[in-house]
Structure formats: structure tokens, C-alpha cells
């Protein structure tokens, strides 16, 4: 057996798995930052994290973070670190709102993920119901969707970050909220995500998972987490969906 034959067989198996996921999905749960757009394509996430850390410093609260946390490139990591030490506090509420404002700034220059818009519209047209399940603020999601003319494809099913930060993914809370609101069994849904936390949340909720990896590093991280069906382009999903329509 040649390597070309092996690759062809793997590709055929992945295509079959993808078609099976699509055919079973009555409800599609989308992560936001990644599968739908690159929220921090211009307004960089590391700058947002730095802003949060500097704001804490201005409040005289630098000591609440470790050195590693102060150097974090992920604003959610900063938020989680504070929540572990001051859960439910006014400080957390202020920091979460500050992050929301930064996300709203980022949404203005967010880069749409290739093929996401036509895939969303096609899935809606063939009768699937869609929801957003994200660690980003729902206000940010609503702002972005309105700008792309996609609100009707999702509203009112947008489930994002609250001030209960321990319920962020990988906790399945936002997925379970969506499933309950839409009256859908987990096995009749599908989640599209691009991070290990998306996969782990889907697994905890009992929802089949489709990984989107725009580069090899993303794909490797998803595989390491346990994801088995991963695409590098949403065009692949769109073609599979149209072949079943």
C-alpha cells in the first residue's frame, strides 16, 4: 500500500465522518472567535491582556497575579486568574466589563473566517437551527453578527460570557443553556470549535464535535485534546452540506 493510497483512504474516512456529523445535526452550536471570525485579527489579544494587567496595576492590585499571569497573552487567562482569587467581587465585574469593551473595539476590525458566512446561511436555509456558544461577551457577538447581516441566523440563541467566570468553557454551561433553550438532545446537535476547551465542553455536554483548525498548530492542539474530525477550511463543510441538500 502506497502512502498516496493511505492518504486517500484517510481523506475518504474523514469525509464520511463529516457527512455523518452533518446529517445528524438538527442544531449547530458555533464557537465565535475562530470558526466565525478572527476577533483579534487587528486589535490583538495580547494587547488586550496587557491592558487588563496594567489596569490592575493602576488599582494597586498587581500582586493578585503571578508573574506568569501578568505576562499572559490571553485576556481570558487574566480574567480567570482574578476570578480564582476574588470570585463574585466588584473587581471581577469591572474587569469583565473592561474586557467586553475591548472586545467591542476588536469587533470593528474582526476578520471573517473564510466560508463562514455562506456556510451559516446555507445551514439555516436547509432547516438547521444555529446558536453561538462562546467565552466572548454576547454583546460583542450580537454587534458582529449585525454587521454581517447574520443576526437572523442565530437570534435569540447567543450564549456567551457572564460574570460567573467559572462557567466559561471547558465547562459545558453555555452549551447546556443552548440545548435546553432549543429543546435539543445533545446527540442531535453538533459543535464547531477551534480550541481544546471547545472540544472538552462539547464532550462534557455529550455533543458531537467538529474541529476547525486554520493552521497546523491549532490542529495539533485539537488532536492532542482528543478531537477526531477536524477540517482546515469551512469550505470542506460547505461542500459536504451542499452535497446532502
From TrEMBL:
PANTHER family assigned to the protein according to its UniProt record, in alphabetical order: PHOSPHOGLYCOLATE PHOSPHATASE
GO molecular function, one term: hydrolase activity
Protein's recorded name: HAD-IA family hydrolase
SUPFAM superfamilies for the chain: HAD-like
Alphabetic keyword roster: Hydrolase
CDD domains: HAD_like
Species the sequence originates in: Streptomyces griseosporeus
Lineage of the organism: Bacteria, Bacillati, Actinomycetota, Actinomycetes, Kitasatosporales
Keyword ATP-binding: no
